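[Help] Beginner question about ligand-bound structures

Sorry if this is basic. My supervisor gave me a protein sequence and a SMILES string for calcium ion and asked me to "get the holo structure". I don't really know what that means in practice or what format the answer should be in. Inputs are pasted below exactly as I got them.
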Amino acid sequence: MRKNPIPLFFLFTLISISPMAIVRAESFVITLTASKQYYCLDETVYIYGNLTLDDVQINDTLVGLEVENPKNQSILVRTVATGDVSNKSWFIEVLNVIACDQYGNPKDSFTRGGLSYFKASVKNNDIENRPVEITINTYDSSNSPIGLSAFQSVIYANETTTIIISVAVPTTATLGMAKVYANVYSSRPKYGGKPFGPEKSNEFNITDSTGSLGEPAENVPPLNGNFNSSFHLPPTTNAGTFQIFASSMYDGWTAVNSTVFYVKVPGDVNGDFRVNLADLSLLGMAWWSTPSSPNWNPNCDFNQDNRVNLADLSVFGQYWGYTPSA
Ligand SMILES: [Ca+2]
Ligand SMILES: [Ca+2]
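Answer (accepted):
No worries, everyone starts somewhere. Holo just means with the ligand present. The predicted complex, written as structure tokens, is below.
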């Protein structure tokens, strides 16, 4: 009698099972959210997000953030931590940043309309020479980003580079205690560059020509996500589309993301960043309405008091003819 052969399908089954032993693609993801889709000219923008590896929050690394205005000019470049990174070591790090005069001597006060100077030291702890981009970003006492300078360099292995960089102080800057943030990246976050080390900051004063000081900055409330940053829209902001970029690196994984928010000018009903006859026509259609009216249009309620009336027409008048400057 013939022996029973091992059924072929059984062999195939055995073979096909073994390579399936739990191979899972790791995914390193950065989410990015602005607290609102539309802001008015004089508002604070909150940015937040989550950094996760296979859906688990990564709470010990860095995220680079960059924001571009409607003219594609960067207004801020910052590095935020997703948690406590104080015990970590970095290939390249900013050691410190101070306000100084053009020769590097410490100086803590600058006047509006002039130049401010900052000295930053950046150390390369690596055994390789590294190309870097160092950014110096100033914020006034109302938390508005008011100046940004960037400097590209190569830092030799185990050496420290010190730079002195100038940043203009706009005439519109709020007086008082201002802050400077220094960072170092492989390249800027908007180009997918990664932060090398934690941000360093310092304080300085912005004065007018008579040397008086303004109010100190207010505190920022906590936000969702494992990283966040906030800023007040600068007084010179143009209405339009702003872009936010984020980038991060962790154990060889890299993640990038971007999103947009819009800055609307009061009086712009149809959202084309201009205040003109088209908006006046829409305002007329919604005139004297409340949320229960058939002709209610919340975009005409500029002061957000749930009625469209003379108060809104007054706001409309203030911005009549607004167009984003070129
Ligand atoms: Ca409009
Ligand atoms: Ca109103």
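A couple of things worth pointing out: Residues 301, 303, 305, 307-308, 311-312 surround calcium ion (ligand 2) (CB under 6 Å). The first strand starts at residue 28 and ends at 30. Feel free to follow up in the thread.
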